[in-house]
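Researcher: Let's do a round of design. I'm pasting the structure tokens now; please hold your answer until I've finished.
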């Protein structure tokens, strides 16, 4: 007699389901570097997070976004503290190098493994487009902050007019 226990858990593979999409296309390390160059650490971090999500690692994706925001804020603070005579490339090159190295360390092996299986990578044009959208969003945020400071009377133009 084959009686089944009604309280027994079903024998399904639900517990071992992976979040990874084995056919998802990943951004190349060069695309992540390009995005960082064009759109800041936030753009490079966003592409890395998109790769982590496609690899079934949503927690790493979330941490990547948070670390990118923190690093971007740190760069902004350093830019305000250091003299204006320092060229912008001094800030840009270390960001790109750091993001490329992080992408190589954490994602290069998975990118290569997928390419060996014949899965194409995402286009660097897509990376450039996403980075330009991030840059546009940052510029709109900067303009909004600037206008807000001006409306409060603590902006750049207010201090210039007060000096006359």
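Researcher: That's everything. Go ahead.
Model: Designed sequence:
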């Amino acid at each position: 007699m084959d009686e089944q226990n009604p309280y027994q858990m079903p024998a399904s593979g639900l517990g071992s389901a992976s979040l990874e999409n084995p056919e998802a296309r990943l951004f190349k390390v060069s695309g992540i570097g390009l995005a960082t160059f064009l759109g800041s650490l936030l753009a490079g971090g966003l592409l890395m997070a998109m790769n982590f999500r496609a690899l079934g690692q949503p927690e790493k994706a979330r941490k990547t976004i948070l670390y990118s925001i923190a690093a971007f804020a740190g760069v902004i603070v350093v830019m305000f503290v250091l003299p204006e005579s320092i060229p912008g490339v001094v800030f840009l090159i270390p960001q790109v190098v750091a993001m490329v190295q992080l992408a190589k360390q954490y994602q290069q092996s998975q990118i290569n493994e997928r390419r060996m299986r014949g899965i194409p990578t995402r286009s660097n044009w897509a990376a450039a487009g996403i980075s330009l959208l991030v840059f546009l969003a940052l510029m709109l945020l900067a303009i909004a902050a600037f206008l807000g400071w001006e409306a409060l009377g603590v902006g750049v133009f207010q201090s210039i007019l007060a000096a006359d």
